[in-house]
Amino acid sequence: MNNEIQKLHLAFHGKIIDHLGIQMYQSPTAAIAEIVSNAWDADAEHVNIDFNFQSQDKANWSITIRDDGHGMSFNDCQRRFLNVGYNRRETKGANEKSRKKQRPIMGRKGIGKFAGFGIARFITVETVCEDDSELTKFELDLNTIRQGDSYVSTQPLEISVLEHKRQQKEITKGTKIILHDLKIARQIPEEQFAKSLARKFLINSTADNFEIRLNGKELPNGTDLPNIELSFPKDFPDADIKSRNIQINSDGWATERLPNGKTVQWRIQFCKELINNEEISGVTIFAHKKLAQRPFMFNMTGGSASQAGPEYISGCVVADWVDEFGEDIISTERQRLNWEHPELKEFQVWGEKLLRRLLSIWKSKRTEKKLRELEGKVSKFSDRIHALGLEGPIVKKALEKIASIEKINQEQFIELGDAVLLAWEGGRLKGLIDQISRTDELNEADLVQILIEANVITALHTAETVQAKLLAIQGLKERVEKRELENAVRDFIAKNPWLISPKWETYVKERRLDTILQSAAKDSLNSDDEFRGRVDLLLSSGDHLLLLEFMRPGLTVDKDHLYRFNQYTDYIQDRINTETALGFRRITGYLVADNIANKIGMSTTLENMQKNQRFAISWDSLIKQAEHWWKDFLINVKARVPDDPRIQAIQSSK
Prior knowledge:
By secondary structure, the chain is an alpha+beta fold. The chain contains 19 helices and 22 strands. Helices cover 37% and strands 19% of the residues. α8 runs antiparallel to α10 and α15 runs antiparallel to α16.
């Protein structure tokens, strides 16, 4: 060795970019959020994101992000943008503000500017510096940057400059970044992307003078939620506000000082329904207007954290100071904080205590509300509860315990309440229901047991109901076989219209059209001796009429009968069309007889009738059709709980 001083050269190889975190930006939202952050730092007021997916060839797809910030000079591009790992805060301090608008700087690590490589091969940068209208345009190719096998290179990588000039006259300042040769399999859903990107920032477009648009449309407010039930601190009891020394601003946000002297702002809301979106379920922490911790529950464990409450929470906490330490405690892709850091210990304790208090208030108010609603809903069961005599209070108390479980909505509660009452009335589940009424607090394990048995009880009740219907069909069959086709059959079907079809179970006998029916029969049917002595029945539901004509025993329906039946039905249709006050809009007709003639032309006539909702059917087919519907239904009901002997013991028919 000689005495000459040797120099070491530190350079980087392109593959080191992967290790610095580019792979963390493989979602379009995460990648573009970093570019938007740079626009904020550059004092931009407008950022326009455009998805260019018109081409059938995916190779031509691109994403353009354009801002009107101060832009970069050629020197800025070299010294700052192309300096991998350049950390501006180490140079200018953790509390650096933007050049003109004095915004808190979002950028920190110096790697976010390459986030576009997470979803694209090429990044084209075109920037105009506001100081002297200097234009610089260059392109980065990830494949070129990654070339070679070594991780260290002594030679800097040369970047091709596509354009560089000083403009003769002032032109629009700002930076345009184009991502192309995209690594996405399908077009990005605009609405979903817009909401996700908005949730990365805590920016008020009016107050912060910063607007983001996607394909010409302004991004929604990422903190807006529908169906809010409670909003804190607004819904805090006065005692809590006083004891915590909370200051509430006009927007409903709280300002609170932690024991360590740090200040936080927060707003936490409870929705009426479960929140199924992980991007808003929990509490999000922002620092310098940007996401620092994705939604979480301050690492709560046990107690309230294991209950349903957290699934209804969505909130935000602003803690700028977590992004102002000399060391970095926010993950590279800004998804989580390092909660092992000693500076965050009191912050976590504060957050956990706050959430436990909010959950306690929410649960109390929710139970009170459910009990109030229960009183109204229980009135539906009041006669049945009263009929239970001394046992009534036991059942009512059990229903109140069930109502206190957060995961049960009102519709589910009413259904479960019906099942509980049915079970008690039928002598089933009495022991379990009595136990529920005596317990201090109903837990979810008890609820699961109730739901399992309630499912069996509901199926049992349904099966018994279907069995009764099948017995009724058997009764109709016996009447038909005995030729009892006069008023007894008519009244039987009027009481049980589901015999024609299950969908007509709610239909009732219609008497307002008696005069019209008489006129129609006189004009259309009475001239035919074979129609004399028929039995007709008219049922209705809503705007629908159901007409049934029962032919005399022993008759076979032929084309002439069909013609007269159509005339009869047309007459009624015309009359109800003019009697608009009755509210009927359509009519379905059935002509029922012993047999349907099998003659030339009958099939064509029947097909044409069917188009107008008019049908001819034999008694045998009508009964077999009804049996088929309800037997299949019973089979399906029994299949729900195949191991329960009570249900399997129910027979479909004799």
